[in-house]
Amino acid sequence: MSDLLKVFNSLRRPKLLIRAARIGSANYRRERDLRRLIKSQSLPKPGSGLTMLMAMEQDLEVTRKTGNATYSISRHVEILAALIAEAACLAQNQTV
Fold first, then answer.
1. Contacts of 51 (CB under 8 A, 6+ apart)
2. Cα angle vertex 80, ends 19, 55, to 5°?
3. What is the dihedral of CA 53, 59, 63, 69, to 10 degrees?
4. How far apart are CA 69 and CA 29, in angstroms?
5. Which of 13, 15, 10, 20 lies closest to 77 in space, CA to CA?
6. Are 52 and 39 within 8 A, CB to CB?
7. pLDDT in tens, 19-77
8. In angstroms, rounded to a whole number, what is the distance separating the alpha carbons of residues 85 and 56?
9. Separation of alpha carbons 95 and 5, rounded Å
10. Which whole-number Å values give the CA distances from 65 to 21, 40, 55, 73, 77, in the listed order?
């Protein structure tokens, strides 16, 4: 699991995008938001949720960098906010 956190911590994104995501992560509710984001009725374990979100975020990052017209900054912020909250949840579970 710590490998996932290392990968998460190595992400480099624009400061404004990260700042918006940090603000959004304060309102993140795992039960509500993660189900909606991954389109699932059941909640995965924190490590699995983080892995899914990282794949989704990587796709958004590629879309952003290529200048594709389908890029949604609001979706990117939403996924990054969930990533931040899930990583915090995973880190907290590892220290317990």
1. 4
2. 150
3. -70
4. 30
5. 20
6. no
7. 999 999 999 999 999 999 998 888 888 788 888 999 999 999 999 999 999 999 999 99
8. 15
9. 13
10. 18, 28, 16, 12, 15
Structure tokens at 38: 């991954």
> Which residue in this structure is represented by tokens 């993140």?
28
pLDDT of 2 above 90: no
CA triple 5-11-17, angle to 5 deg: 120
CA within 13 Å, CB half, 93: 12
Entry pTM: 0.85
